[in-house]
Amino acid sequence: MASNRSTTPIPKGPWDVVVVGAGAAGLMSCLELPPGLNVLLLNRNTGRRSSSRWAQGGIAAVTRLEDSADSHAEDTLRAGAGLCDGDAVRQLVDLAPGCVDRLLRLGMAFDRDGSDLATTLEAAHSHHRVLHVQDRTGCALVDVLRDRVDERPNLVHRRGVRVTKLWVEHNRCCGVQVLDGSQLHWIRSRAVILASGGGGHLFTNTTNPAQACGEGIALAWQAGAAVEDLEFFQFHPTALKLEGAPCFLISEAVRGEGGVLLDANGQSPVADLSRRDLSPRDQVSRALVNAMQQQGSEQMWLDFSAIPSERAEQRFPTILDRCSEYGLNPLERPVPVAPAAHYWMGGIATDLQAATSLPGLYAVGEVACTGLHGANRLASNSLMECLVFARQMQDIDLGPEHDQRADSEPLVCDTPLYHGETSAGLIERIEQLRRICWRHAGVDRSTRGIASALLSLQQQRARLDSQPLLQELRHLSTDQVLTLEDGSRRDLNLLLDLSHRLLTSRLMLEACQFRQESRGGHFRTDAPTPLPQWQRHSQQIRGHGIRTRAVRS
């Protein structure tokens, strides 16, 4: 039976697999791993926050007779702007219906249209193929998966545990370093699965929770794994834009049901797009930004009036409730919206088995770059990607078993911050970094802006590297345990937040600088058109700079 956060140390194991992250990707990976394996599931959060739980729209799969896998593949390829790997696309569309059946057996209660599964239309889809549970699909999915994970034997689930480093020996990942309560120590395993989510919180305006800061990408890159396509970030066109209110997503399904975008003059800002309101997200987001700049406005408007009230109340109760909290009634008047960072197409490079370039390390979900999404993700393919690639964990390649070594006596650490740094100062530096990323790596980018951002990050990095607390973490031998006093533990968490954000932001900006064209989720104002010579993936490996790889057929 799974156990949750505890004040007792994590059992020494032996562990076959450590899974990092408890959203849809991590939970499904736990369920797909062969029975009999000893599995440790680590969740940085103490509560139930994950990007998966926040997903409103749904899960894309072919379940209707008039639809087909070929059509689903064509829509995915079209949205991906020439960079989708064909083998990854085919794997997803072929396996998706079976994954839906698997979810139904696990207890997932999708909305129904009579006895049939209900489906809706979302942007860039040619058929109604998006399955949903009202507008809380992600939450319903995670709840079902978590209940099933709690029933899995030989699994321990620990909340409030942060992975701080990957353990690499002889060019193989063989465990993790963790901050577990007050203790910093090492955990050995035969394989590690990263399912830690994306990086939307690198930007000021985002639909993502705070922990979505690209930490898994930083950990993998530091360990020597390749990362790909970090320049491609999807900005969702319709996040609530209201002073004093959080930036929360208003699902694309609203436009699929008949909602339309309006500018300050009541005109459509997407009238010139081929599919208007249901065009790919990158096109809609850029159209909104252009209209906002022309009109000197910070928001556009989303009009629900074409959706019958009863239908809207049935499909979007969560959205209507959230709007009501801030005095808005979408059924009576349009609500203010603006683009916000939503989904990272790039991530840790994986093959079709979810294996990274570092043996023993796997990546599933938004933290991974499978090649499926290309330069721009098709709506509602992301949750299905979690399920399809988690399924590959049935055939995970485990490293050799290891004897458990005894740890030395814990060392006590009460090291303070140096060079006049404070906790409040670290928090402000994180917020400053988010503003820089939004300004120079948001919907519109340019050579000049990217160069300015990289210079700022370089200066911040130099200040950070001299902090002794980070040095102690980096030099902790694998048989050592460090016990941190409360102040040092708090400061180390902030230092890690800033350090990982600086690294992932730098890698993203370098990829943005490298790609001298516009394509999908990457738009350069100084290079606004796609170029055939750039129809290749970007790839970054520690010590090898940045290069390209061909698109797989």
Task: Tell me briefly what this model is.
The chain has 553 residues and is α/β, with parallel strands linked by helices. The chain has 15 helices and 23 strands. It has helices spanning 24-32, 51-54, 69-79, 86-106, 137-150, 215-223, 253-256, 281-295, 309-315, 317-325, 381-390, 423-441, 447-465, 468-474, 486-514, and strands at residues 15-20, 39-43, 59-60, 112-113, 116-117, 119-120, 130-131, 155-159, 161-169, 172-180, 183-194, 227-228, 233-240, 260-262, 300-303, 335-344, 347-349, 361-363, 368-369, 411-413, 482-484, 537-541, 545-549.
What does this structure look like?
This protein folds into 3 domains: 15-232 and 343-395, FAD/NAD(P)-binding domain; 236-340, Succinate dehydrogenase/fumarate reductase flavoprotein, catalytic domain (Flavocytochrome C3, Chain A, domain 1, Alpha-Beta Complex), CATH 3.90.700.10; 411-549, Up-down Bundle (Methane Monooxygenase Hydroxylase, Chain G, domain 1). 34% of the residues lie in helices and 19% in strands. The protein is built from 15 helices and 23 strands. It has helices spanning 24-32, 51-54, 69-79, 86-106, 137-150, 215-223, 253-256, 281-295, 309-315, 317-325, 381-390, 423-441, 447-465, 468-474, 486-514; strands at residues 15-20, 39-43, 59-60, 112-113, 116-117, 119-120, 130-131, 155-159, 161-169, 172-180, 183-194, 227-228, 233-240, 260-262, 300-303, 335-344, 347-349, 361-363, 368-369, 411-413, 482-484, 537-541, 545-549. Strands 1, 2, 8, 9, 10, 11, 18, 20 and 21 form a 9-stranded mixed sheet that branches. A 5-stranded mixed sheet has the order 19-17-12-22-23, with helices on one face. A 4-stranded antiparallel sheet has the order 13-16-15-14, covered by helices on one side. Helix 3 packs across helix 4 (86-106). Mean pLDDT is 93; it is low at 1-6.
